Amino acid sequence: MKQAQDVLNIRTRGQGHHDITSEVSAWVARQGMQTGLLVVYIQHVLASLSIRQHSDHDDLHTFFRRLEGDEDMAPRPSHLYATQICIPLRDGALTFGAQQGLFLLEQRDSANTRHLVLHLIGE
Fold first, then answer.
1. How far apart are CA 76 and CA 89, in angstroms?
2. How far is CA 2 from CA 5, 36, 117, 119, in A?
3. How many angstroms separate the CA atoms of 81 and 77, rounded?
4. What's the confidence (pLDDT) of residue 71?
5. Which helix (H) or strand (E) holds 26?
6. Above pLDDT 90, what percent of the chain?
7. Are 122 and 95 in contact (CB under 8 A)?
8. Helices (H), ranges, 49-95
9. Average pLDDT over residues 44-61
10. For a 10 Å CB count at each end of the chain, is N or C smaller?
11. Strand partners for 85
């Protein structure tokens, strides 16, 4: 078994869902493993991860913005998502469904640099 670990820095454009599938997939491909398991961990509390269809991210973000409201205790999008996601690796590629991708949900209005710890174990 081999292991690889790195930190991927993602620059967001501000609030919303950002497709990070290609950046993460490219890193995995560079590791040269055929089977294994990738763990993606985001080191932030006002950003989170989700695996979803490419077509629904804008509507879902609008829904969560309405859900937040003005109350301090309103659910925030980052509270409803994951800080860590595991994705199997098969035949050298991440095993997303046909319409799925990996998304970073940025909660802040301003652009930010978010840090993802990637840990791949496999062969």
1. 31
2. 10, 9, 17, 11
3. 7
4. 44
5. helix 21-31
6. 63
7. no
8. 57-68
9. 74
10. N
11. 40
Give the Cα separation of 26 and 86 in Å (integer). 16
- Average pLDDT rounded to a whole number, residues 108-117: 95
CB-CB contact of 122 with 36 (8 Å)? yes
- Among all chains, which residue has been given the structure tokens 């398991």? 37
Q: Is the pTM of this model over 0.90?
A: no
Show the beta-strand stretches assigned E in the chain.
2-11, 16-19, 36-42, 47-53, 84-90, 93-94, 100-106, 113-122
For tokens 């469904």, what's the residue? Answer: 97
Q: What is the mean pLDDT of residues 16-20?
A: 91
Identity of the amino acid at 64: F
Distance CA 58, CA 103 (A): 11
**Residue tagged 């990738």 (tokens):** 38
Stretch 104-118: mean pLDDT: 94
Instruction: Starting at the earlier edge strand, list the strands of the sheet with 2-11.
Output: 2-11, 113-122, 36-42, 84-90, 93-94
* Nearest-angstrom CA–CA distance, 86 and 51: 10
